[in-house]
Amino acid sequence: MIVVHATFPIDPDERDRVIEHIEELEAKTRQEDGVIEYVASTDIDDPNVIRFTERYEDEQALGAHTQTDHFAEFERMLPDVLAGEPEVMRYDVENAEELEL
Amino acid sequence: MIVVHATFPIDPDERDRVIEHIEELEAKTRQEDGVIEYVASTDIDDPNVIRFTERYEDEQALGAHTQTDHFAEFERMLPDVLAGEPEVMRYDVENAEELEL
Questions:
Q1: I need a surface site. Which of A55, A80, B19, B41 has the fewest CB within 10 A?
Q2: Cβ–Cβ of B93/A50 closer than 8 Å?
């Protein structure tokens, strides 16, 4: 399994447009083979920071995602809407476990 | 490194109180040894779903966090504010890498 955390600081004036775009991106990505989880959230301290939490079964699923039209479209939009440096981190997981609270 | 994803569906009437509590929880947790990242966000589709993205250097750091007063306080509050089942997943990471967009 591969976990990806992607964080995008967004220009407040572009936030609504970006959220709309991301809702489409989420819907299409969740149809892809090997995508376990693909959700976007906004930071509780700064609602203009958008955070993706993504999980993929394997390298192939992650690779296929980055080759999709909807991912390319999102990437093309970024230079016009970013308000800072994005960060995308990839974590190769050797063990996953649900924790009881 | 250990990544934790925790998701809490919150009663809309309790949302403001919970967010306030989480801001304190974040501030205190970020002071702890071995806590690399500890951020909370709200889902873009449902703002009453609160998502924690957490990273710990090791088992000891995660264990110490769960023994803190501020974590215990948050856990005590949950039964009164949840609107559904929480999910807490732990991922043991064998490799971490920043991805270029």
A1: A80
A2: no
In A10-76 the beta strands, taken as DSSP E runs, fall at: 35-43, 49-56
Torsion, CA B49, CA B50, CA B51, CA B55, rounded to 10: -170
Amino acid at B56: Y
Tell whether B88 lies on the interface with A, counting CB pairs under 8 A: yes
ipTM comes to: 0.94
Size of interface A-B (CB pairs under 8 A): 106
Nearest-neighbour CA in chain A from B94: distance (Å): 6
Structural domains of chain A ordered from first start: 15-92 (3.30.70.100)
Contact flag B96-A90 (C-beta cutoff 8 Å): yes
Minimal CA–CA distance to A11: which of A57, A91, A77, A58? Answer: A77
